[in-house]
Design brief:
By secondary structure, this protein is α/β, with parallel strands linked by helices. The chain is built from 19 helices and 22 strands. It starts with a strand and ends with a helix. Bound molecules: glutamine.
Length: about 525
């Protein structure tokens, strides 16, 4: 059985538990351990697939097609491992499986209850997610004291009995607020949230204290005394200029050694964090800056394009430029002169999205980029709108002229395939997860990837309509990637343009700080060239 690090949160949400979990994972991996991370979300949705990006930020998709919480993106970026469906649990998932078993008669007439049936199911999933690992990190979403989190806290309490107390660590992430009027940091909310944890029977081994001001030793001693942890287990985490510095500061505070000691694992081999230091340095101190217009439809929500934003920064780290991302509301481009709004940009990124709102603005941005030779990268819906723009304005294929017009799409060059049409009422029409793709030799994409065979993750319903492929290609659009399994166009390019690449998949999901996604890397390189030539 694996060992476990359980991460809970206290006082308020948004304390960066996900980043903490990812950073602990990164540190333990650097110590040579086999690690993974499991996210537990106490909401009733079975997965994040149905959640609105305005409410919950981006949906992160795994290779095996699970639609998960965006924290899984942090985990993959920090521990550089590919996660799967089993790395994400929700209340909805647990209850549906327990209820299904009940209907099947699996409980042999017993009364089915939260304890033990729900809590057992949770523990079994935790154990399954940890199988074959040295350490599994488990992040419990929400805040201690939430009603919906109770069964999960009870389950992780029981895990200490199952796995043995020496094989589990409880790490509580909490807030030490600074009161402006008193000019003081306050420990009381932390004391209360630890009391709440102890009431359920969990004694945290360490406290990760988020604070805006430095904590002195006296304060750490006080927290230690009230919360029953050794003073060295009170870890201070100040707001960082970049999340990629968190592994470095947690290590400086001794968190990884503390965890290893608690788990009975060797802790005297210093981890080599030089690649994190390099990432941080290049992120914070680049000599130049590129401005990227992010033309989206969920731009008001700061997490709606989280992985896209990170992938752009990874490209910047790789080319030693700061990436200044300027959000442009796609709808604002409708009925106004796109050049006025987009002139500042050294590159234009059109991300994914659902529904028709804003698509005309995306099309206007694609036209502006194509006509003015401005680097552009389109992702999923972005790629689809680049194709529509090309069909309309270069091929002069007007939707009104087409008998094949599909009311669900704005132009027949992007369509629902027949087999999907038949499934429409069932809702199960989405292409999800990793698909293999063959690249066309001599294209920018092939050059960027450095290989002709790739796999990328998908999350969409509509596809490039092969009925139009020849007409679009004859007009100059280059098909640079095709899904090997199903003859679907996955990447389009415009030869001769500085960088005009649209991908049907979400490349951002596989980008890592030390290994930027090839298309984001190529895009930022082109944007940097554009910026330098402009000067
Ligand atoms: N709405 C488009 C589709 O379903 C694009 C989806 C996306 O961008 N993820 O195909």
């Amino acid at each position: 059985m694996s060992k476990y690090v359980f991460i809970t949160g206290g006082v308020v949400s948004s304390l960066g538990k996900g980043i903490t979990a990812g950073s602990i994972g990164a540190l333990l991996k650097k110590r040579g351990l086999k690690v993974s991370i499991l996210k537990i979300d106490p909401y009733l949705n079975v997965d994040a697939g149905t959640m609105n990006p305005f409410q919950h930020g981006e949906v992160f998709v795994t290779d095996d097609g699970a639609e998960t919480d965006l924290d899984l993106g942090h985990y993959e970026r920090f521990i550089d491992e590919t996660l799967s469906e089993k790395n994400s649990i929700t209340t909805g998932k647990i209850y549906s499986s327990v209820i299904k078993k009940e209907r099947r008669g699996d409980y042999l007439g017993g009364t089915v209850q939260v304890i033990p049936h729900i809590t057992n199911d949770i523990q079994e999933r935790i154990i399954r997610a940890g199988s074959g690992l040295d350490v599994l990190i488990v992040e419990i979403g929400g805040t201690v004291g939430d009603i919906e989190g109770q069964p999960f806290l009870e389950a992780i309490r029981q895990m200490a009995v199952r796995a043995g107390r020496g094989n589990v660590v409880y790490c509580h992430v909490t807030l030490i607020p600074y009161l402006e009027a008193a000019k003081e940091l306050k420990t009381k909310p932390t004391q209360h949230s630890v009391q709440e944890l102890r009431r359920i029977g969990i004694l945290p081994n360490m406290l990760v204290c988020r604070t805006s001001h430095p904590m002195d030793q006296g304060m750490k001693n006080k927290i230690a005394l009230f919360c029953d942890v050794p003073p060295e287990a009170v870890i201070e985490v100040r707001d960082e200029p970049t999340i990629y510095n968190v592994p470095i500061s947690l290590h400086r505070e001794g968190l990884d050694a503390l965890i290893l000691k608690q788990l009975g694992l060797p802790y005297d081999n210093e981890p080599d964090l030089s690649d994190w230091a390099r990432v941080v340095d290049r992120y914070l101190n680049p000599p130049e800056e590129v401005k990227i217009a992010l033309v989206g439809k969920y731009v008001q929500h700061k997490d709606a394009y989280l992985s896209v934003v990170e992938a752009l920064h990874h490209g910047g780290i790789s080319h030693n430029v700061r990436v200044n991302i300027v959000s442009v509301e796609a709808e604002d481009l409708e009925g106004s002169d796109p050049a006025e709004i987009l002139r500042f940009a050294d590159g234009i990124l059109i991300p994914g999205g659902f529904g028709e709102r804003g698509v005309e603005g995306m099309i206007a941005a694609a036209k502006y980029a194509r006509e003015n030779d401005v680097p552009i990268l389109g992702i999923c819906l972005g790629m689809q709108m680049m194709v529509v723009e090309f069909a309309r304005n270069v091929c002069r294929l007007h939707e009104a002229h087409s008998k094949e017009m599909n009311p669900a799409t704005i132009h027949p060059v992007i369509h629902l395939m027949e087999e999907q049409e038949n499934l429409r009422d069932l809702g199960g029409t989405m292409r999800l997860g990793a698909y293999p793709c063959d690249l066309t030799e001599g294209t920018k994409s092939a050059e960027a990837y450095g290989t002709l065979h790739i796999t990328e993750r998908h999350r969409h319903r509509y596809e490039f309509n092969n009925a139009y492929r020849e007409r679009l290609e004859n007009a100059g659009l280059k098909v640079a990637g095709v899904c090997t399994e199903r003859d679907l166009v996955e990447i389009v390019e415009l030869p001769g343009h500085k960088w005009y690449v649209g991908g049907q998949f979400h490349g951002e999901l596989k980008s890592r700080p030390v290994r930027p996604h090839p298309l984001f890397d190529g895009f930022i390189k082109a944007a940097a060239d554009y910026m330098r030539n402009k000067q």
